[in-house]
Amino acid sequence: MHDYFKKTSIELGIGAKINVLKLGDSGEVFYEMALEMVNAIVENNALDKNTVFICPVGPVGQYPIFVRLVNFHDISLKNVWFINMDEYLDEEKQWISIKHKLSFRGFMNREVYSKIKPELLMAEEQRIFPDPNNLKNISDTINKLGGVDICFGGIGINGHLAFNEPEDITPEEFAERTTRVLEISRETRTINAVGDLNGAIDAMPKYCVTIGMKEILSAKKIRLYCFRDWHRAVVRQAAYGEISAHFPVTLVQNHPDAKITINSNAAEQAF
Predict the structure, then answer these.
(1) To 5 degrees, how large is the angle CA 243–CA 61–CA 259?
(2) Distance between CA atoms of 74 and 121, rounded to whole angstroms?
(3) Cis link prior to 59 (omega < 30° from 0)?
(4) The pTM is what?
(5) What class does CATH assign to 3-263?
(6) So where are the chain's domains?
(7) First-last CA distance in the chain
(8) Bridge partner list, 84
């Protein structure tokens, strides 16, 4: 067993290879995330620059706060691009229906885009998901826009970012992985079934389309957020573990501007 799992909440962050910001409850974590999104947009709008985000559906607690801030302060999203990380696929390896309970596209439409004042909302073509039938679109879009300002996300139980599941390859090879279709690991399907379908693992999709580590690592900033019980171990391995494709988030240790923000629960000692 690695000693870093035994680090106390006070010790966590000291000597870490990724900066760790410890906050109070989950609401603080979500507010921090929403505020970073809004601040980046406001700053770029003032400079008449585009804002390009890679965005997750999980965590999602930031979105109601983001929507309220945008609407209250009349923040224009006209020059903002949201590139979502991933989407579930059906057995034919096509997007699941947008009406499906688990559809990330459906979530963003219901909980984000439909709740923003129409006069502030970005054009539909600026709300992008990886497409199993056009895998190059993500990298082409990023290149056309001049790069990603911030990649936001969470960390999976096996260290995955987006759906970049662990592989038995070198970190250098894994860092070059781009948008692709892949089979979701059993552990990811299990933990997602617990959180999203009350344990119905057989109802979980087996396939997904995901942006790659190359797109994630190319972002100017990477901001990750954790708040669950099992994040106690995940955060410690991310911040202190050996860089390896076995635990993909460890590749972020090489990024020049990365941070993991956690609540007091995730800061507690793993075991």
Answers:
(1) 30
(2) 10
(3) yes
(4) 0.97
(5) alpha beta
(6) 3-263
(7) 10
(8) 55
